[in-house]
Design goal:
The chain is α+β, with helices and mostly antiparallel strands. The protein has helices at residues 5-11, 15-44, 65-76; strands spanning 56-60, 80-85, 88-91, 98-101.
């Protein structure tokens, strides 16, 4: 007696039904693999070492919303930041938000604050 009784039943069915069973099994396997890969990438994969890309990062739109949250995350990881708002360079690394009128020709480097 086989440990998989459904295979014994499948042997007595027509060939086209076995082919459909095979296609369904492959489709299920592919979908399951995709779901497991997504879960690994989003929940279990270790974070990247951002320092290998350089010690500085430019964050645009850094005064509110996603840009501000992204800037704080990068600062916690020890990355030096250049924070750019439309028309101004903003320094939030020192703890206080300081808006400096910017000129496109000048770049202000803001070193991160130790957290």
């Amino acid at each position: 007696m086989s440990s998989f009784p459904f295979l014994e039943t499948l042997k007595t069915e027509p060939l086209w039904l076995s082919f459909l069973f095979l296609l369904g099994s492959l489709s299920f396997l592919k979908t399951s693999t995709s779901i497991l890969k997504w879960v690994y990438i989003n929940f279990f994969r270790p974070s990247k070492n951002l320092k290998k890309y350089g010690s500085w990062a430019l964050v645009t739109g850094s005064t509110d919303g996603i840009g501000k949250a992204f800037a704080f995350k990068l600062a916690k990881k020890g990355i030096n930041l250049i924070l750019r708002k439309k028309g101004a360079i903003v320094n939030i690394g020192s703890g206080a938000a300081i808006v400096i009128p910017s000129d496109p020709l000048y770049v202000v480097y803001v070193q991160k604050k130790k957290i």
